[in-house]
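Hi Y.,

Following your request, here is the sequence exactly as I used it, all 576 residues.
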Amino acid sequence: MEVLSALLVLVFVPYMVWGYASYRAKIPNGDHVPHPCKPNYIWHGVGHINPQGGGKRNPFGLDFVANGRKWNSTLCMKDSDGDGKKNGEELGDPQCIWTENSTPSRTTGITHPGICDPTNSTICQNKNSGVKEICSYEGFNCSYPLDGPDIYNITVTLEDTAVPPTETNYYCQFVELPHDKDYHIIAQVPHIVNRNVMHHLILYGCTDDSERERYSTPAPCNGMKASCLGMLAGWTLGDPGSCQSENVGTPMGNSSYKYALLEMHWNNPEKIASYRDSSGIVLYYTPKLRQYDADVMTTGQMGLVIPPGKDLYTANATVTSKCTSYYIPHTIYIDSANIHMHYLGASGTIEHFRNGVKLRNLAQDDIYQYDSPVTHMHNPVVEFKPGDELKTTCNFNSKRRTNITYYGEGTSEEMCFGFITYYPALKTPFSPVSYKSVDMCEASLPENKGMGGMAGDIGNGCNGFNFLYGHFSGHSNTKKALVEAVNTTCNNMRVGQCTEGCIAARKAFTDHPCTSGVPNEILVNIYSQSDETKTSKWQATTAVCQPPPTGVANNLIPISSLAMVVFAALTGCLLI
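Below is the corresponding structure, written out as tokens. Let me know if you'd prefer a different format.
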């Protein structure tokens, strides 16, 4: 499980942030000005002392206002922060030729025009009033001490590894956890070594050591593993650490998780080849087990296709009464919730309904900031009963994008998730997500065999989930033969054409009892990422030989995690 703690370093005035956001479009690279003392962070309020905007202006903000809130050669040639570099040089317009809505001559190596940096240099000693506190804050406060006699800690890290010179990378390593007895994880603190690339990390609990050999050393990983679905801990940008409520903990040890898989997401947009990293996370744990086991529920929409140039694009997903009645057999108690999107995220909510009546917002971000996630704490906790409903809504602003933005794990792609922490943990992890019009939670119910019986046995020993994900029970050779037939017969098709043999091979696969009725868009995203197929072939044949329904754009959305869609619905899924 991951507990995403309250991350408010400062208290911001929301309406001011929203108002000043439009000014970023009036300067070159206004959406990508980095935080001068926290690599991989964005300083959204470029003209303000507050990184999120609003309040007192920094020197660049004062010059911007004095210049009529416009970019021209006068403002470009100034050195507002006094660090020896002109504003144009810092913002990627050294020739002072940029105009609004155009691409700057340089989009990398951007520095802050209103904060003198390096902040600890001699030239900046007497500058940057008010910035020192923002740059120095790193810690978090726990309501109970973490140095008691019955509290231990272990630092779980990746072995020192070269970061590939590609923008988005996922690496995993198998680790062994303390398991001489049962423990509860009660707190976590990030151990971040290379802040230039670290985007997020997740520590998945594993039920056995089947991934030990494959990930004995750091290796590229793509998707959740069937034996490693527990969410033990995690970190994302802006998270200083977290501790759990005093009556709950995350199980680890002899009768629960003895092993774990540490997954790292590196973001290396400048594709620098010299980076290395050995980051990880510090777990605080105790043998004095607490009253409840805690867990996290993930809701949201994974079928994102966000058109460019939109002030507002809304995606939502509903967890129905029918779904929660089946998967939540008893009352659970929610103590926190937060919304997760990327840089197009503008605002969002997670709503709680009972008998068709809205009770409350579990989370409401009127102004969403990716680099400063806010967790909405509930004290007293919220009672959530079987049959209650949830609605997750994400609002995006793609006005400055020129291409379609799809769902994905890269920061230039998008997500729409709600993370809800609760107790006591359900016996079956519950993460109800949607994929476009497909409600994956309802689709997974045993009664809905139109999804290929993905939640259970549908006869003749065929289990849709096992068939699709390779956990075979007598169907291994059948599946491999069906997939190979598609690859072989469709191999030499020209773009935009389809042969009768290819059509027949595709039909044989989709007519199989284990896949019959599974929506085509789900099959595409499962098998286009499978180790048993070749992505380009499968996507090409599916697009041409079995076009999507009327009204649905013929775009294949790249999902980098193999089991992301159905694993999320049938088990537990946490994506950062």
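The chain has a mean pLDDT of 78.

Thanks again,
Q.
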